[in-house]
Amino acid sequence: MIDSQTEQILQGIVRRESRSLLSYIGDAFPWTTASRSPTLATLNDAVKAESAAVSALGRFLVRRKLMPPLLGAYPAGFTALNFVALDYLLPRLIDEEHRTIAGLALDLANITDEAARAPVEALLRVKKKNLAVMEALVAPQPVPA
Q1: What is the average pLDDT value for the chain, to the nearest integer?
Q2: What DSSP character marks residue 31?
Q3: What percentage of the chain reaches a pLDDT higher than 90?
Q4: Looking at residue 12, what is its pLDDT?
Q5: 31 beta partners
Q6: Are 10 and 61 in contact (CB under 8 A)?
Q7: Residue 94, class by beta-carbon neighbours within 10 Å (0-12 exposed, 13-18 middle, 19+ buried)?
Q8: How far apart, in whole angstroms, are the C-alpha atoms of residue 96 and residue 145?
Q9: Contact criterion met (CB below 8 Å) for 54 and 17
């Protein structure tokens, strides 16, 4: 049986991560040139990976017969990011990923149930991997000689 504090933490994680900036950008169609299409595809892969990890956490809640949270709408401020340049978005996504990783680590420290920790740890691993991928996308690329 999961205690009520852990249940609230897990529900908060699902809600927050389901309405994250990265999740929103997956549907926002960032603008980019044809030469940066692989970058956009890589970003879409990151969106899918995080979505799958959040869904796994939601399924964990359901298997434990716990109420999944109401997700609500995305923050209104995200609408200003529709159809903007990918190069403009990436630094913001990186900053947001740093912030959400820190929050998730704090949440994880307050979860004592080992079974409940596993899907949160999996989500944290995905987020850290995605952060590294996004940071590589904005790193200066060597110019061919």
Answers
A1: 92
A2: B
A3: 70
A4: 96
A5: 85
A6: yes
A7: middle
A8: 35
A9: yes
Confidence at residue 35, expressed as pLDDT on a 0 to 100 scale: 83
pTM confidence score: 0.90
Query: CA-CA distance, 60 to 113, in Å (whole number)?
Result: 13
Listed residue (107, 80, 87) closest to 21, CA to CA: 80
Closest CA to 4 of 59, 66, 69, 60: 66
Distance, CA of 64 to CA of 92 (rounded, Å):
35
Mean pLDDT of the 95-123 span: 96
Distance of alpha carbon 74 from alpha carbon 33, whole angstroms: 27
C-alpha 4/C-alpha 40 separation (Å) is 40
- 18/5 Cα distance (integer angstroms): 20
Q: If pLDDT is split at 50, 70 and 90, which confidence band does 92 have?
A: very high
What distance separates the 2 farthest-apart alpha carbons in the chain? 62
Q: Which domains does the chain have, with CATH numbers?
A: 4-138 (1.20.1260)
Q: Higher confidence at residue 25 or residue 145?
A: 25
* Location of structure tokens 């949160």: 120
Non-local (6+) Cβ contacts of 122 within 8 A are 53, 56
On whether the CB atoms of residues 81 and 24 are closer than 8 A, the answer is yes
